[in-house]
Structure formats: structure tokens, C-alpha cells
Design a protein that fits this description.
Blueprint: H1 2-26, H2 31-36, E1 39-40, E2 46-47, H3 51-74, H4 79-98, H5 100-103, H6 111-144
Antiparallel strand pairs: 1-2
Helix pairs in contact: 1-3, 3-4, 4-6
């Protein structure tokens, strides 16, 4: 149970670091107005922009990079770290699959926006392919080293 507890401590530390980075970068900037602003949607309901979703994207990006470095440093030998990377990568794939519509909603319909959104869609697809490749390779290497140790660290 020790490796899983260690990874939970890592994830809590990364979450606190993400909140700190998010607060420092966006805390006193002009983007703060857009994030706390309320909108009236088409059906007349008042809604707010997805603040938690933005923090989650910072957490996914930072944790993915940290765990990718940890897995490469350990050469895929620690199954608990590999499992954490696969879970984070799966969450990243889910996040980029569901929020592509959220960030690409057009405020004005013009040719400049259309070209800009095409570039963003290609970037989203590139990131998803990269995440799927990392997930597949990490799963393969974890399966290859699975006989040597268990995930729970017996």
C-alpha cells in the first residue's frame, strides 16, 4: 500500500502547486474579469464560465509532464507510477475530447475566426494523438514489467 500512498501524496502536491500557479498567473490579470463574469445564455438562464475546468486543465498539464518525466527516469520499472501516468493520460484524453466544443464556440462568425478555430482543432487532435500514443506505450511497458512487481508493491 506504500507506493499508492506515495502517489496520492504526489498528486495532492501537484494539485496544490496547480492551484498556486493558477492563482499567480491568472489572479491579478485581465483574464480574471472574463473568468468571473456571468453570462445570460440563450434560454435565459444565468450561468458562469467553467472556472473549475480551467484549474483542471492546469492540473492535468502539470501532472502529465511530471509523471512523464518520472516514468522515463524510472524506465517504466515502477508500476504504481506507470498506473498514475495512465490514469492522468486517460483523464487528459477525456478532457480534450469533451471540452473542444467549450473552447471553440464562436462569438462572431467571420473568416478570421473560422481559420483560427481550424488551427485550434488541429492542435487538439495533435494533443489527443500524443496522449493516446503515450497511454498505449505506457500500458505496453507496464504489461511487459508486470511480472517483476505488483502495483501495490508487495
Amino acid at each position: 500500500m506504500k507506493p499508492i500512498l506515495k502517489e496520492l501524496i504526489w498528486l495532492i502536491g501537484i494539485l496544490l502547486f496547480s492551484l498556486l500557479i493558477f492563482g499567480v498567473i491568472l489572479g491579478n490579470s485581465a483574464l480574471d474579469i472574463n473568468m468571473h463574469d456571468t453570462y445570460i445564455s440563450e434560454n435565459g438562464q444565468i450561468s458562469q464560465p467553467p472556472f473549475i475546468s480551467n484549474i483542471f486543465s492546469v492540473f492535468i498539464a502539470i501532472s502529465f509532464l511530471i509523471y512523464l518525466v518520472r516514468v522515463c527516469y524510472n524506465r517504466f520499472k515502477k508500476n504504481a507510477v506507470n498506473l498514475a501516468l495512465m490514469i492522468i493520460t486517460g483523464l487528459g484524453i477525456f478532457y480534450f475530447s469533451t471540452n473542444i466544443i467549450l473552447y471553440l464556440t464562436a462569438t462572431n462568425v467571420g473568416s478570421v475566426w473560422f481559420n483560427y478555430s481550424k488551427g485550434l482543432i488541429l492542435m487538439y487532435y495533435f494533443i489527443k494523438v500524443l496522449l493516446i500514443t503515450v497511454l498505449g506505450f505506457t500500458g505496453f511497458m507496464t504489461g511487459k514489467n508486470f511480472r517483476n512487481q505488483s502495483v501495490l508493491g508487495a
